[in-house]
UniProtKB/TrEMBL annotation:
Lineage: Bacteria, Pseudomonadati, Pseudomonadota, Gammaproteobacteria, Moraxellales
Disordered: region residues: 22-54
Source domain of life: Bacteria
Entry protein name: Uncharacterized protein
Natural source organism: Acinetobacter sedimenti
Skewed-composition ranges (Polar residues): 22-49
Length: 179
Protein backbone atom coordinates (compact mmCIF):
# COMPACT_ATOMS: atom_id res chain seq x y z
CA UNK A 1 0.00 0.00 0.00
CA UNK A 2 2.81 2.37 0.93
CA UNK A 3 4.59 1.50 -2.32
CA UNK A 4 1.46 2.30 -4.35
CA UNK A 5 1.11 5.68 -2.63
CA UNK A 6 4.74 6.55 -3.35
CA UNK A 7 4.39 5.48 -6.98
CA UNK A 8 1.24 7.55 -7.42
CA UNK A 9 2.93 10.63 -5.89
CA UNK A 10 5.94 10.22 -8.20
CA UNK A 11 3.68 9.63 -11.19
CA UNK A 12 1.58 12.71 -10.36
CA UNK A 13 4.66 14.90 -10.03
CA UNK A 14 6.10 13.61 -13.33
CA UNK A 15 2.79 14.22 -15.09
CA UNK A 16 2.53 17.64 -13.47
CA UNK A 17 5.95 18.66 -14.76
CA UNK A 18 5.17 17.23 -18.21
CA UNK A 19 1.98 19.31 -18.33
CA UNK A 20 3.84 22.48 -17.43
CA UNK A 21 2.91 22.64 -13.77
CA UNK A 22 5.74 23.48 -11.37
CA UNK A 23 7.13 20.64 -9.29
CA UNK A 24 6.50 21.05 -5.57
CA UNK A 25 8.04 19.17 -2.68
CA UNK A 26 4.71 18.52 -0.93
CA UNK A 27 2.75 17.37 -3.95
CA UNK A 28 0.22 15.23 -2.12
CA UNK A 29 -0.52 17.92 0.48
CA UNK A 30 -0.74 20.78 -2.02
CA UNK A 31 -2.92 18.90 -4.45
CA UNK A 32 -5.66 18.93 -1.85
CA UNK A 33 -5.34 22.66 -1.08
CA UNK A 34 -4.29 24.23 -4.39
CA UNK A 35 -7.65 24.07 -6.25
CA UNK A 36 -9.30 26.37 -3.75
CA UNK A 37 -6.32 28.74 -3.71
CA UNK A 38 -6.18 28.82 -7.51
CA UNK A 39 -9.88 29.49 -7.84
CA UNK A 40 -9.66 32.31 -5.30
CA UNK A 41 -6.79 33.88 -7.25
CA UNK A 42 -8.72 33.56 -10.52
CA UNK A 43 -11.84 35.10 -8.98
CA UNK A 44 -9.78 38.01 -7.63
CA UNK A 45 -8.10 38.56 -11.01
CA UNK A 46 -11.44 38.41 -12.85
CA UNK A 47 -13.00 40.90 -10.42
CA UNK A 48 -10.32 43.48 -11.29
CA UNK A 49 -10.75 43.13 -15.07
CA UNK A 50 -13.21 45.39 -16.83
CA UNK A 51 -14.94 44.20 -19.95
CA UNK A 52 -14.95 46.81 -22.69
CA UNK A 53 -17.41 46.68 -25.57
CA UNK A 54 -15.93 45.84 -28.95
CA UNK A 55 -15.58 48.65 -31.43
CA UNK A 56 -18.37 48.60 -33.99
CA UNK A 57 -16.94 47.80 -37.39
CA UNK A 58 -18.07 49.65 -40.47
CA UNK A 59 -17.39 49.13 -44.13
CA UNK A 60 -17.79 52.83 -44.89
CA UNK A 61 -14.66 53.50 -46.91
CA UNK A 62 -15.34 57.25 -47.00
CA UNK A 63 -14.98 57.57 -43.22
CA UNK A 64 -11.70 55.66 -43.16
CA UNK A 65 -10.47 57.53 -46.25
CA UNK A 66 -11.11 60.85 -44.50
CA UNK A 67 -9.18 59.59 -41.47
CA UNK A 68 -6.36 58.57 -43.81
CA UNK A 69 -6.36 62.00 -45.44
CA UNK A 70 -6.06 63.75 -42.08
CA UNK A 71 -3.34 61.36 -40.93
CA UNK A 72 -1.18 61.60 -44.04
CA UNK A 73 -1.36 65.40 -43.95
CA UNK A 74 -0.16 65.37 -40.34
CA UNK A 75 2.56 62.79 -40.80
CA UNK A 76 4.06 63.87 -44.11
CA UNK A 77 5.05 67.17 -42.49
CA UNK A 78 7.34 65.20 -40.19
CA UNK A 79 9.08 63.64 -43.18
CA UNK A 80 9.25 66.86 -45.20
CA UNK A 81 11.06 68.49 -42.27
CA UNK A 82 14.81 68.65 -42.65
CA UNK A 83 15.41 66.95 -39.32
CA UNK A 84 13.62 63.80 -40.53
CA UNK A 85 16.86 62.55 -42.00
CA UNK A 86 18.45 62.53 -38.58
CA UNK A 87 15.34 61.52 -36.60
CA UNK A 88 15.67 57.91 -35.46
CA UNK A 89 12.05 57.74 -34.26
CA UNK A 90 10.39 57.88 -37.68
CA UNK A 91 9.26 54.31 -37.11
CA UNK A 92 7.30 55.17 -33.95
CA UNK A 93 6.08 58.61 -34.99
CA UNK A 94 5.15 57.99 -38.62
CA UNK A 95 5.27 54.39 -39.75
CA UNK A 96 3.46 52.82 -36.80
CA UNK A 97 0.30 54.99 -37.06
CA UNK A 98 0.26 54.43 -40.82
CA UNK A 99 0.42 50.67 -40.42
CA UNK A 100 -2.28 50.72 -37.72
CA UNK A 101 -4.72 52.63 -39.94
CA UNK A 102 -3.86 50.51 -42.97
CA UNK A 103 -4.51 47.33 -40.99
CA UNK A 104 -7.77 48.71 -39.66
CA UNK A 105 -8.77 49.64 -43.20
CA UNK A 106 -8.14 46.09 -44.42
CA UNK A 107 -10.19 44.67 -41.55
CA UNK A 108 -13.12 47.08 -41.62
CA UNK A 109 -13.47 47.90 -45.31
CA UNK A 110 -11.49 45.58 -47.53
CA UNK A 111 -12.58 42.36 -45.86
CA UNK A 112 -16.24 43.29 -45.70
CA UNK A 113 -16.79 44.41 -49.28
CA UNK A 114 -14.14 45.54 -51.74
CA UNK A 115 -16.78 47.10 -54.03
CA UNK A 116 -17.56 49.63 -51.30
CA UNK A 117 -13.95 50.74 -51.31
CA UNK A 118 -14.08 52.08 -54.87
CA UNK A 119 -11.71 54.96 -55.60
CA UNK A 120 -11.06 55.34 -51.88
CA UNK A 121 -8.56 52.51 -52.33
CA UNK A 122 -6.29 55.24 -53.67
CA UNK A 123 -6.19 56.71 -50.15
CA UNK A 124 -5.10 53.34 -48.80
CA UNK A 125 -2.42 53.32 -51.48
CA UNK A 126 -1.25 56.75 -50.35
CA UNK A 127 -0.89 55.39 -46.81
CA UNK A 128 1.36 52.65 -48.17
CA UNK A 129 3.32 55.11 -50.31
CA UNK A 130 3.91 57.39 -47.34
CA UNK A 131 5.11 54.40 -45.32
CA UNK A 132 7.51 53.43 -48.12
CA UNK A 133 8.83 56.99 -48.36
CA UNK A 134 9.28 57.19 -44.58
CA UNK A 135 11.19 53.90 -44.63
CA UNK A 136 13.46 55.12 -47.43
CA UNK A 137 14.18 58.34 -45.51
CA UNK A 138 14.84 56.38 -42.35
CA UNK A 139 17.23 54.00 -44.13
CA UNK A 140 18.82 56.84 -46.18
CA UNK A 141 18.22 54.80 -49.34
CA UNK A 142 19.04 56.10 -52.80
CA UNK A 143 15.43 55.96 -54.06
CA UNK A 144 14.05 58.55 -51.59
CA UNK A 145 13.21 61.05 -54.32
CA UNK A 146 11.27 58.46 -56.34
CA UNK A 147 9.37 57.30 -53.23
CA UNK A 148 8.48 60.92 -52.48
CA UNK A 149 7.18 61.44 -56.03
CA UNK A 150 5.12 58.24 -55.79
CA UNK A 151 3.65 59.41 -52.49
CA UNK A 152 2.79 62.89 -53.82
CA UNK A 153 1.08 61.34 -56.87
CA UNK A 154 -0.93 58.93 -54.69
CA UNK A 155 -1.81 61.72 -52.27
CA UNK A 156 -3.26 63.74 -55.15
CA UNK A 157 -5.31 60.72 -56.26
CA UNK A 158 -6.63 60.36 -52.72
CA UNK A 159 -7.54 64.04 -52.62
CA UNK A 160 -9.46 63.69 -55.89
CA UNK A 161 -11.33 60.62 -54.59
CA UNK A 162 -12.37 62.46 -51.42
CA UNK A 163 -13.38 65.65 -53.26
CA UNK A 164 -15.38 63.72 -55.89
CA UNK A 165 -17.01 60.83 -54.04
CA UNK A 166 -19.68 60.30 -56.69
CA UNK A 167 -17.13 59.23 -59.30
CA UNK A 168 -16.34 55.56 -58.86
CA UNK A 169 -17.36 55.13 -55.23
CA UNK A 170 -20.35 53.08 -54.20
CA UNK A 171 -22.29 53.64 -50.98
CA UNK A 172 -21.51 51.31 -48.08
CA UNK A 173 -23.65 48.24 -47.57
CA UNK A 174 -26.23 48.28 -44.86
CA UNK A 175 -24.92 46.20 -41.98
CA UNK A 176 -26.12 42.65 -41.98
CA UNK A 177 -27.81 41.11 -38.98
CA UNK A 178 -25.40 39.49 -36.53
CA UNK A 179 -24.82 35.82 -37.06
Amino acid sequence: MKFQLQCSVVLMSVLGVACGNPQNSNTSEQSATSPSTDSQNEQHANANQKIKPAKKLTNDASAVANEAWILINQLDQLIYAENAKSNPDIDGMVREPLRELSTRWRIEVKMTDSVTEGKYALCRKSLNSLDAWARSVQEQSSDRAQKQLNYERDKQYCKDAIENPKYGNTPPKISQAPI
